Structures are given as structure tokens and as C-alpha cells.
Fold:
Amino acid sequence: MFWRLLGGVAIGAASVIAPAYIAEVSPAHLRGRLGSLQQLAIVIGIFAALLSDYFIAVQAGSAEAPFWAGISAWRWMFLTEVPPAIIYGIGALMIPESPRYLVARGRDREAASILTRLVGGDVEAKVQAIRQTVMRERKPHISDLMSRGGLLPIVWIGIGLSVLQQFVGINVIFYYSSVLWRAVGFSEKDSLSITVITSIVNIVTTLIAIAFVDKFGRKPLLILGSIGMTITLGTLAVVFGHAPLDAAGNPTLQGAAGTTALIAANLYVFCFGFSWGPIVWVLLGEMFNNKIRGAALSVAAAAQWIANFVVSTTFPPLKDIGLGVAYGLYTIAAAISLFFVLLLIKETRGRELEDIA
Structure:
């Protein structure tokens, strides 16, 4: 538990710093696509983890069986995380510092040099624009996020985006995918295969988001994603809710029902992958003004991880109650996300960070 906690702190820090950094070093016309790389990295990581888990489990015979050096297969699944962590650390030492951070520290010449390398153009004017905003700033505090009535409205919107991204149940598909498909009659090997295929779908649709986020904008993609997720999650809720139960009380999907569930699950991942997966990270990196960006992003990311924890820990008992109930709740969250975007989200495509109030 201690090591899981330590890893969680590290991943939590990275999940805050990465979108803020990407937003601060990206030119406005490319910021959406580059911000989407955060989600692309996440889904590629999921794919790599699931694929390695699949091969380890197949070679060992099961996740509990001994693998190399007599060490259990599931322990080797954890050990495969070590090389990417080392590569991440080396890469972090090689990237340039954020120009906005440098200007805030009075290191304008370094900031201009990095801006020349990253974006080009009239970097002196860019440095001047950044200086105008940082001169009005100080070290961010949580108190900067407060107004008389509590948190600033924009912070609540960021929290809402983060929570809804998790409450639609996307991580149930990945955390519990093999458990889910085994519960409805698939073998362990077939369940792992389905999970790998689903992760590939996630990667492909994230690439679609990268291609179109700066052409169509953030809000239209979120709206389309919400509509698609509501329909596909609703389909899963109906299929699982009407599935007959076996002797152990688990639903069994036979014939057309199993095919429908597989198609709906992958279409759901498709709809999430081009919208709420990458776009939320893009918006969190650019929707807050320079004064509160770091602190607000921290709060929003914390809310996201809390929501992730809530969803992942409530799914097992919900599964015991009924998969139809679980997916019904995720369907409601997806429907709420549609109205949330329509009513509260403002388009940020093409705007400089210094122009966001």
C-alpha cells in the first residue's frame, strides 16, 4: 500500500504538470493537438500494459502462476513498469523549461531562446506579452481560486469536467475489462484479447482527436462524444440488464447479445477516445488564466483522481448488484456531460493563453 501510494503521488504530480507544461510551450494554433498528446501517451501506456500483461499471463498459464525466475506472473506485470518510468525521468531532464516560468523568474533571455526554438516569429513581443501577465502575478495559492461564494466558477467547471470524465465509467472498461468479460462467459484468454483490442481502439480514436481538435474546436468534439457515450452506455445497460443469470448469479451473454455488447463497448471507447479523453486534458491546460492555472489545474486533477477512485472502487459491488445498474449510472453521467458542455463550456480554440481572462 505504501508503494502504491508513492506511485500515486508521482503519477498525480505528472498528470498536473504535463498538461500545464504542454499548454505553456505550445503555439495557439497547435495547442489542442499537442495537448491531446497527454491522452495519447496515456492510452498508449494502457495498450502497452495490457499487451504485456496478456503475453505474460499466456506464457505463464495464468496471472497467479510462476513466470521467469519463479516469480509470479502478476509481479512481472508490475516490473514491466520500471523501464518506462526510467525513460520518463531521463526525458524530463532533457525538455526545455517553460518560457512563462522563466519570464516569471526574470530570465527573459532564456525564455526568448526557447520561444525561438519552439514557436519562432516575434519572440520579443511574446516575451513582453508574457511579462505583462506575470507582473500582475505572484506565487499561486489556493486562496486565488476563491471568491466570496466559494471557489471561482471557472474552477468548478474544471472540476466538473474532471469528475464527469471519470463518472462515465471509462476506467471500468480498462481496470475491470477482463473481469467484466469473464463475468459474462468469456474465457480468461479471450477476455484479455478483448481488452487489448479495446485499447487499440482507444489509441486510434485519440489520433482522430489530435487531427481534428484544432480544426473543429473543443466544444463540438465534447458534444459529439457525450451523445455517442450516452447511446452506447445505454445499450450496454439494456443488454446487461436483460441478460439471463447463471447458477452463480452472473449474467450470461449468448448469440446476438454478446456481439451487441462487444460492439457497444468498443463504440463507447471510440466516442470517449476522440472527445472526453483528450479534450478534457486540453481544456484543463488552457481554460484557466495565467494567475491561477497551476493551482486550478491541481485542484481539477485532484478531483479527477478522486472520481477515478470512486468509480473504480464502486464497480465491484455494483457488479454484484447488477451490471445493468452499473452501466445505467454511467449512462446518466454521460447524459449529464452533454448538458454540462452545452451550458457551461466556452470554446478556447486559437486563443493565446495571455488572452484568457
Residues 183 and 248 are 10 Å apart (CA to CA). The two ends are 42 Å apart (CA to CA).
